[in-house]
Amino acid sequence: MIDRFLEVRSQSEILCQPLLIEDYSVQASEFVSPPKWHLAHVTWFWEEFVLTKYSPEYSPYNDDFSFLFNSYYNNVGKRVLRPVRGLMTRPSVDEVYAYRNYVTQAMVALLKTNLDKEVLDVIEIGINHEQQHQELFVYDIKYILGNQPLFPQYGSGFTPKEISQVSGFSKIESGIYSIGHQGDRFSFDNELGAHKVYVDDFEISSNLVSNKEYLDFIEAGGYSDFNFWHDEGWSWINENKIQAPLYWHKFDGEWWNYTLQGLQKVNLDLPVMHISFYEAFAYSQWKGMRLPTEFEWEIASEKFSWGQLWEWTHSAYLPYPRFNKSLGALGEYNGKFMVNQMVLRGGSVATPEGHSRKTYRNFFHASMRWQYNGIRLIK
Ligand SMILES: [Fe+2]
């Protein structure tokens, strides 16, 4: 556990190595958090949920930090609201690193003692929580750099593989299948409560939709025919003047897109990414197909390779029949977001290794597209 803990703590800092000091405090949009905030918030999580509860000697690094770095836990108390995280030029980046170090040392001391299952379970959540923020950090730094006039590079990595030439569909027989996490390994509470679901026959694509295929949709006028869109999606593309995936730019008749390696010509063989649920749905309509439900996705997940991009499903993020949220603040982790969000399944090139699994339920509002997501179709 100590090794895993230290590895995750150090990974958060490795991700920040390409940053300039100026990059750390910027909040480029309401849904983006500054890198400095991520570094401090995951540290606060250890302090709040582990150290102050299970380490009797522990004294918090700074009593104001709970107010500054609590994300959304009403049970913990008042906090700086999300839209103004970028106004905090203080504490300094150096102080946030000192805070990290202080908490990491206290955690290592605690981990060297005999801990019971209750504490170890919370530590496991803390490890998974910090990994989730590492992925969010990738989305956020891409948004921060990708919206600058000079499109600066972050560095290498986090690029999906080109779509394999072998395409096709796998057929799944109708039947009653078990859905949800089972076994002793870690899962979040929203995956628990395995239960049975009936699905009809379906065929699911082996590949994600490519940029080339998505470009065909754009060029065929997909963004100007309301017949392919939900009413809400149609309003959304018109109000926001959306004509292409996030980070796409047309220069002299050619499509370019911002990647973490800088601005590049759109590689037609890569999977399309950074599309909203509305766009994924409209594309499926244009193609005469549909998106999988989260149950179909989970049942079929052994038939294709996944993990390049999170895949939009046509399932609302709802509690499973026996969903049981934890007591206290940790009960706010997942359950309170189960309204007006769609489920995404799989994982992405920005997901820390080993973090996801076939029962993992990611979720975003239908309009969100700064996350690493893509489209897989069903016919
Ligand atoms: Fe968090």
Fraction of residues in H or I helices: 25-40%
The proportion of strand residues reads: 5-15%
Structural class: alpha+beta
Average pLDDT, rounded to a whole number, is 97
- Form type: globular
How far apart, in Å, are the first and last alpha carbons? 44 Å
Output the helix-strand order.
Answer: HHHHHEEEEHHEEEHHEEEE
Low-confidence stretches: none
Give me the Rg, rounded: 21 Å
Describe this structure in words.
The protein has 379 residues and is of the alpha+beta class. Helix content is 33%, strand content 13%. The chain contains 9 helices and 11 strands. The strands form 4 sheets. A 4-stranded mixed β-sheet has the order 10-9-8-11. α1 runs parallel beside α5 (117-146) and α2 (35-54) packs parallel to α4. The longest helix is centred in the middle third of the chain and has 30 residues, at 117-146. The model has no long low-confidence stretch (mean pLDDT 97). The chain binds fe (ii) ion. Residues 41, 71, 129, 133 line the site of fe (ii) ion (FE2).
